[in-house]
Amino acid sequence: MRYKTNLNLSVNYQAQPVLTKLQRISWQTDLLGANLDVASGTLTIQQEDGRQLLNVTVPATTNVWREFDGVQLVPEHRLRATVTLTTTTGDQYEDTATFFTATDFGQAAWLTSPVDTAAGEGEFLFSKALTLSAAPVAVTMYTSARGLYELYVGDQKVSADLLTPGWTSYDHTIQYQAYDLTPFFAQTTTRQLNVRLGNGWYLGMLTWDRVKNMFGDHKAFIGYCVARFADGHTEVCATDDTWQSAEGPIRLNEIYDGETIDFAHAQADFLETTDRTAWSQAQVLDLAKQVLTPQQDQACRVTQVVAPMAMYQTPNGDVTIDFGQNLVGRVRVDLAALLGDEPTTLTLRHSEVIDAQGNPYFGNLREAKETVTLQNATAEAGSYAEHFSFQGFRYLIVTASRPLRVVKTAFQAEVIHTPMPRTGAFASDDALLNRLYENIVWGQRGNFVDVPTDCPQRDERLGWTGDTQVFISTGLYNFDGYAFYAKWLRDLASDQLPHGGVPAVIPDVVTRLQPQTHSSAAWGDAAVICPWTLYKFYGDETILVRQYDSMKRWIEFNSNAGPTPYAGNPGFHYGDWLALDIEGSSEGATPHPYLACCFHRYTAALMQRIATILGHADDAADYKALVAGIDDYFNQTYIKDGELTIATQTAQVLALKMIGLTAAQRQAIAARLNGMVINNNTHLNTGFVGTPYLLEMLTQHGYAKTAVALLNQKSFPSWLYSVTKGATTIWEHWDGIKLDGTFWYDAMNSFNHYAFGAVGNWMYRYLIGIDQTEASVGFSDLVIAPLVRDSKQRYVSGNYQSVRGNIACAWSNNDGQVAMRVQVPANTTGKLILRDARFGSCSLEGTYDAEAAAYTIPLSGGQTLQLTYQVL
Ligand code: BGC
After folding, report:
1. In angstroms, what is the span from residue 699 Cα to ligand 1's centroid?
2. Dist. CA 800–CA 820, nearest whole Å
3. Are 139 and 183 in contact, with CB atoms under 8 Å apart?
4. Average of pLDDT values for 63-72?
5. Any residues with Cβ below 6 Å from ligand 1, and which?
6. What separation in Å is there between the alpha carbon of 454 and the centre of ligand 1?
7. Which of 530, 546, 688, 714 is 20 to 30 A from 22, comparing alpha carbons?
8. How far does the centroid of ligand 1 lie from the alpha carbon of residue 463, in Å?
9. Measured between alpha carbons, how far is 363 from 367 in angstroms, rounded to an integer?
10. The predicted structure's pLDDT at residue 120
11. Which of 504, 526, 474 is nearest to 719 (CA)?
């Protein structure tokens, strides 16, 4: 039998990309389930005209294919990759992914509307009747915009993609998408192409200064449609001055502010009609096409729909709908269920939290309006959801221009972000911890709207490098985020400053406002830490090759920034952002030069490894010398009488994580760190910079119990504090809502800021126990070593779907009697380490290290182990 199945087939890390070059096709054999034994596999690639480009047999255990020598990708084609797995019983399971080859857009021109754009905050519309000479075999349309666009054939949107072409460093790169229009021409050879064009990141307001037109003065659309016919000929329809344009019913659209649509507007029904008499000729703009690049990750989509949990009137009289989850996306309103014929204006405001009085809180949005206004709405308008913005919210506040009976079933929240397969899961017997984990995942959804952002609601929503760097490991355990991060890293390299410094946000919109705020320690270091982390998780060195110059320039910048190459950058820094070890500052108590020195050492050491991996021996030798020099400098500057001269938790953590120390120094610093935490009533006081490594350093230096206690701490400051306060996402501040129920100050109080969620990495590695050795990449050499005895939980289970397949571990601890199940994917080796095990109690054979009280059991690919043992 032959079955269609889902193997998460991806081409160059995407489900449906546009390609200039084939680099990698991957699939997940173990999605077939453990009971099916795969004997062999084949991989084929076919062009839409039936031409076969590849047909190879792949070993049963392989799930990444990278040998494409001789596969020539002809431009402007649609291709199909098929993987077929044949089981030992002869059944065949296949998965198919379509992808497109690239275009140069031929004669296509950028189009704008001939209206006064200075006044035009609303959308532009474009339209063209496309007539083909005969029934086509395939029709592909390539589209992009300076702004945000949606493409329709008649009244049907061609794809579920949203917020296209996505946000990139537009001066260097504007992505384009490819859409298959073939089905629209099944019955007819003439169709109306329609386009909506909004402002988005390109023209709309960005940053707290609400700067418009950051990237250009005109919003513009470009499209190139290629139809292929059975006889081999093609017909092209490209944007030119025969297209028509008009202003559309969306009168205002801004990323931060939301959207206003007027249903009484002359073009309100433009999608349903083909009458274009009131339209003008589109205006051709002479703008560069070289910036157009195939899209690099999947475009944003609605990934789930959340129904209202409750509706009530707040003390100040607002009708408020509670979706039960702080989320990011848009609300779809069923106007037919809410309204009749009488034109009504509905105003929908969004809020993340309810204040101590029970009213929706808007203060933390700063200048962002987060408002959707539906003017002259009637039942006839059907259902509506905004097109060119997204909001961060849990609560929706509904007001109407006339008395209205609001029904909560008329509202649904659509969650929007870059779609990525989930790769991780965590569950335990502890509801608070499970909620913390869910909050981390929700924080990632909300801040993965095409760019890794700090927060999704206030007038910021920017690709802060530091936040991205601290979260990337957790992010990659949670979701298959390779393409998402790789896209952002390309922009980081493009936006890097001439001297090698790295802007604070990518795409860079801050350097031009605050020229001095770049290259902060732990922020700019994203340039090295992020590519390295992608490499660690995926084992694909192409990311290192691509980013090598960028990484190298970052190290050079730090080496050249001060009087000595070893001290780190003496310039601007954010410090240990939001640490609690100092009063009245957001920057924490750890001195900036200390942070700069530690991170310089850390990234230089990573570069030493990277240069070695890529065969740049001379560079590797230089980095080695640099690392030794920084260690010396650090010792002379920051160590006195065997102690660090800086007495903060973060300082101890970073020295342990980043500096070359003697065993004695290491022991002393770790002991001091542990003491600091205990003396602080077992509480952390670290910020964005120290927190991500705090539990890891405690655990690795013999203080796992303290790490566990910190994770399980419920009183402020702690991860679970926000959970006990009802958080459904990770807060920016440890005390976004204070003990007395009041808020931290308005200017900086996001309730959806994933940075402190970086603790997820520790939960995967030390609670579930899924980790890899220092030398391993792509989880080729596993270390499965959960903290069973020291954990407060009695039961933990979880998994990580790695590039080699699923790694899973589940354990329970009943009064010291442990039962464990471990799943190891094919092509993997590793070891299972049972810490604190009683000698002779393990049901499987392993080597016992009496001093460590640990059994070590070798793991081999494809194994599922089930065992029991007793802890000491
Ligand atoms: C952002 C942070 C960011 C920081 C820089 C804030 O406004 O929201 O997450 O990293 O600035 O310190």
Report:
1. 28
2. 16
3. no
4. 90
5. 454-455, 460, 464, 466-467, 574, 577
6. 7
7. 530
8. 10
9. 9
10. 56
11. 474
d(CA 285, CA 245): 14
Contacts of 258 (CB under 8 A, 6+ apart): 252, 350, 369, 370, 371, 372, 373, 386, 389, 391
Looking at every residue in the chain, the average pLDDT score rounds to 96
Least confident of 750-754, 780-784, 860-864: 860-864
Looking at 514-575, which runs of residues are DSSP E strands? none
| 447-459 confidence digits (pLDDT tens) | 999 999 999 999 9
pTM: 0.97
The set of residues, in sequence order, having a beta carbon less than 8 Å from that of 840 and lying 6+ positions away, is none
Ligand 1 atom nearest the C-alpha of 688 is 10
**CA-to-CA separations, 463 to 207, 220, 364, 457, 493, in angstroms, rounded:** 11, 24, 19, 13, 14
- For the stretch 510-541, pLDDT in tens is 999 999 999 999 999 999 999 999 999 999 99
User: What does the block give as tokens for 301?
Assistant: 């989509």
CA 608 distance to own-chain centroid: 28
Locate the DSSP E strands across 713-849: 770-772, 781-784, 795-802, 805-814, 817-823, 829-834, 847-849
Q: Which of 574, 576, 749 to mutate to test the pocket of ligand 1 (most atoms within 8 A of CB)?
A: 574
Q: How many helices and strands (H and E) does the chain possess?
A: 15, 48
What is the torsion angle, in degrees rounded to the nearest 10, for the CA atoms of residue 547, residue 549, residue 550 and residue 551? 80
CA–CA separation, 457 and 732 (whole Å)? 12
The alpha carbon of residue 273 and the mean position of all alpha carbons in its chain are separated, in whole angstroms, by 39
Q: What share of the chain is helix, strand, coil (3-state, %, to 5)?
A: 25, 30, 45
Query: What are the residues facing 344 on neighbouring strands?
Result: 377
- Mean pLDDT throughout 383-410? 96
Helix (H) or strand (E) holding 493: helix 482-495
Per-residue HEC secondary structure of 828-850 comes to: CEEEEEECCECCCCCCCCCEEEC
26 pLDDT higher than 90: yes
Q: If DSSP codes are grouped into helix, strand and coil, which group holds residue 638?
A: helix
Q: Structure tokens of 520? A: 């902060």
Cα end-to-end span (Å), the chain: 52
| Residue 489 burial (10 A CB sphere; 0-12, 13-18, 19+) | buried
**Residues 6 or more apart whose Cβ sits within 8 Å of residue 208:** 366, 367, 459, 460
Identify which of 537, 550, 544 has the alpha carbon closest to the alpha carbon of residue 481: 537
Asked if the model's pLDDT at residue 376 lies above 80, the reply is yes
- Spatial separation of the C-alpha atoms in residues 179 and 819, rounded to whole Å: 51
Q: Residue 526's closest CA among 561, 491, 559, 499? A: 491
pLDDT band at residue 116 using 50, 70 and 90 as cut-offs = low
List, in order, residues 6 or more apart from 277 with CB less than 8 Å away.
Answer: none
CA distances from 191 to 65, 129, 132, 187, 271 (A): 40, 6, 9, 10, 12
Measured CA to CA, the distance from residue 66 to residue 80 in angstroms comes to 16
The two beta strands, 220-228 and 138-146, are antiparallel
H/E run at residue 473:
helix 465-478
Per the DSSP assignment, residues forming a β-bridge with 427 are 797
* CB-based contacts of 67, cutoff 8 Å, min separation 6: 56
* Predicted confidence band of residue 720 (pLDDT cuts 50, 70, 90): very high
Residue whose CB lies within 8 A of the most ligand 1 atoms, among 464, 467, 505, for a mutation test: 464
Q: Which ligand 1 atom is at minimum distance from the Cα of 466?
A: 10
Read off the tokens for 469: 């760097």
How far apart (Å, rounded) are the C-alpha atoms in residues 633 and 626? 10
